Amino acid sequence: MSGESTVSSLGEVEVLRAIAERMPPPPPGETWGGDDTAIFPCPGPHLLFTIDMLVEGLDFDLAYCSGEDVGWKAMAANVSDIASMGGRASRAVTSLSLPPGTEMGLVSGLCDGLVAAATEWEVGLSGGDLSGGDQVTLSVALLGLLDGPGVHRSGAREGEAICVTGSLGGAAAGLRILRDDSLATVNAADRGRLVTRQRRPRARLKEGDALRRAGVTAMIDVSDGLAIDLSHLCDASRLGCSVDAATLPIDPALDGLDRNESLELAVIGGEDYELLFTIESDRIEDARRLLAPTGTPITTIGTIGGADRTLGDRALDEWRTLGWEHLREP
């Protein structure tokens, strides 16, 4: 048995003190942790506000990820939501629920992961709440800023191109490796990179702002998987779609897999946190030019419109039912 202190051996006051010691200080004129609420200047006329929760056993497993990984992913998921609206991340508060036997090393790791991700995307960690529970649960609520009109899921127009940033399937492949050490045909270096895509996802924040300026008409982040998130965009825009499966930018580390296996990882795997968007075809090159400083590629994968929704030779709804959704019975 480890001799490390647990949250129940320290109590709430000491745990909160330990957490506070790992948090960065606020900038002049702002109030963060230590008071009943945070205080900071209202930065503009339009704010974005999002929240995301990670629950042990559903969204992460401490058997194959660290506290730092969980803290990073919790922040990244929220920043990705801000990115999908074309905004900039600003201030966040967190809520943490811990079982009594949780060791303080895990708590420290959760804090360090949050701080590292907040630093990466220039987020101010303004405060939070602590409670007990049956499993570790971490929630982040994040404010973002808009420099212009936000990009909704509902703005797609008939005949526009469907595009996606980066590559798909890498995070899901990383999860497969962590869970059962599968995908033996993937070389060691690529396996490490795929695992990192799962544990430490990258939110496309700069890309989202650039795409908003490029004139994209609808956008969503690929968190639940391409099939599910494309369905959300089509539902909101009340349009069909046609996606050419051969054009999907599947993570190159998966090139050695059977095509059907790699396609499934790309379409229903989730947690890639790429940006899926629609745009007029004659504006795609403008979008590529604006994204060039980020090094992130754009791939055209299909067309929005019509009554049917297809991805390759299958209906989009058929793909969607193969994906995973919270609260849905298997």
Q: Could you explain the architecture of this structure?
A:
The chain has two domains: 7-145, 60s Ribosomal Protein L30, Chain: A (2-Layer Sandwich), CATH 3.30.1330.10; 153-322, PurM-like C-terminal domain (Phosphoribosyl-aminoimidazole Synthetase, Chain A, domain 2, Alpha-Beta Complex). The protein has eleven helices and eleven strands. The protein has helices spanning 7-10, 12-22, 67-84, 104-120, 170-180, 188-199, 205-214, 226-237, 259-268, 284-291, 316-322, and strands at residues 47-55, 88-98, 124-132, 137-145, 161-165, 218-222, 241-243, 274-279, 298-304, 309-311, 314-315. The strands form two sheets. The protein has a seven-stranded mixed beta sheet, sandwiched between helices. A four-stranded mixed beta sheet has the order 1-4-2-3.
Secondary structure blueprint with pairings:
Layout: H1 7-10, H2 12-22, E1 47-55, H3 67-84, E2 88-98, H4 104-120, E3 124-132, E4 137-145, E5 161-165, H5 170-180, H6 188-199, H7 205-214, E6 218-222, H8 226-237, E7 241-243, H9 259-268, E8 274-279, H10 284-291, E9 298-304, E10 309-311, E11 314-315, H11 316-322
Parallel strand pairs: 2-3, 7-10
Antiparallel strand pairs: 1-4, 2-4, 5-8, 5-9, 6-8, 7-9, 10-11
Helix pairs in contact: 2-4, 3-4, 3-7, 5-6, 7-10, 8-11
